[in-house]
Automatic annotation (TrEMBL):
Organism encoding this protein: Halolactibacillus halophilus
InterPro entries: DegV, DegV_C, DegV_domain_contain
Top-level taxon of the source organism: Bacteria
GO-annotated molecular function: lipid binding
Entry keyword set: Lipid-binding
Xref: NCBIfam families: DegV
Protein name: DegV family protein
SUPFAM superfamilies to which the protein is assigned, alphabetical: DAK1/DegV-like
Coiled-coil annotated residue ranges, if any: none
Annotated Gene3D superfamilies: 3.30.1180.10, 3.40.50.10170
Amino acid sequence: MTIQLTTDSGADVPKHLQAARDIKVVPLFVRFGEEQYKSEDFTTKDFLERVSTGKVFPHSAAPSPQDYYDTFKAIDPSHPIIHISLSSGVSASYNHAIMAKTQLLEEEPGREMYLIDTKSASSGMILMLEDAVQMMEQNASAKDIAHHLESRVPYLRTVFLLETIDNLISGGRLSRAKGAIAKTLNVKLILHASEEGKIDVLEKVRGAKKAHRRFHELIGEYIKDPAEKVFVMTHGYAKEKCDNALDKVRARYPFKHIHQAETGPVIAAHAGKGALVMSFFSDLSHEEKK
């Protein structure tokens, strides 16, 4: 049975992987004042250039329930759908996908559909998609894959190291109070997707060099044996910086597979140029780590 994977553009799945694995992507939107564009209308380079030269700060917006409905409806009814969603903690995307699923199942109750709230974004969503693809290659059923992915969400870690937190503050993803403290004390914030899927401060580190060192050290505190695990890192139009970071990861942690991708405009709107976002599955769940 053919299983159809779908996601949204918060996932930052490169186009060649979308094509190779037949992943359908529902685009989010970016807004500059009254102007709205699909995220796919920009390259990350062009988007960041507009941000740096423009006077209006961009905001992201979720696809409408109709956008999801149209995507789901167009898929062969005999193909089970597994949708990997941007965190409900930062976007209405997941809730809109739920609305679309409800409507479609009222019309076509025989459909098999599973929606996964990853409580993550960018590299974390890529990691979940990779997990799904591996199980599909082993001929697992859609139900088993969906159950597995749901069980993995509490173990998913997504950690951010940004060049600037101005975008997060302007976009309302980080409080101005936390931002002001960081700037005043020359503190670099290491951020993460919390248990609720919101962007929160994981650690505060003095100085950029110490922050980068701590960024890599954290992996070892979450994983004892990375040999059978997959690691994903995305970057905000900073491939050389990402390459250097991954060289350090490879030297220290023998992951089974390492994937790299560039953040799209949606994530770049919040994380900014030069951001590094890494994801992996921790040995302990959020609850167990407390």
